[in-house]
Amino acid sequence: xxxxxxxxxxxxxxxxxxxxxxxxxxxxxxxxxxxxxxxxxxxxxxxxxxxxxxxxxxxxxxxxxxxxxxxxxxxxxxxxxxxxxxxxxxxxxxxxxxxx
Length: 100
Description:
alpha+beta, 5-stranded mixed β-sheet, 100 residues
C-alpha cells in the first residue's frame, strides 16, 4: 500500500459531505469533506505500488478541466482504471453539491 498527498487551488467548498464507490477489486472509494479553505487536499491510498506519477498526472489534468472544490478528498484505491477514478470523483462532487 502507498499513500500520497496532493494540494490544488480550489474554489468555494461544496455544501455537504459525500461518499462514492467501494473499495474492492478494480474499484475505488472517494470521500469528500468540505472545508473553509482555498485548496483541495487530496489523500490517495492505493494498492498499486509505484503509481505516484500516474495520480499526479491524473489530478493535474482534472484540475485543468474543472474547478476543484475546497476541502478534503480521500481516495481509497484498489487498482481502479483512470475512467473509474474519474467517475467516482465526479460522483462524490455531485453528491456533495446536492447534499443540503
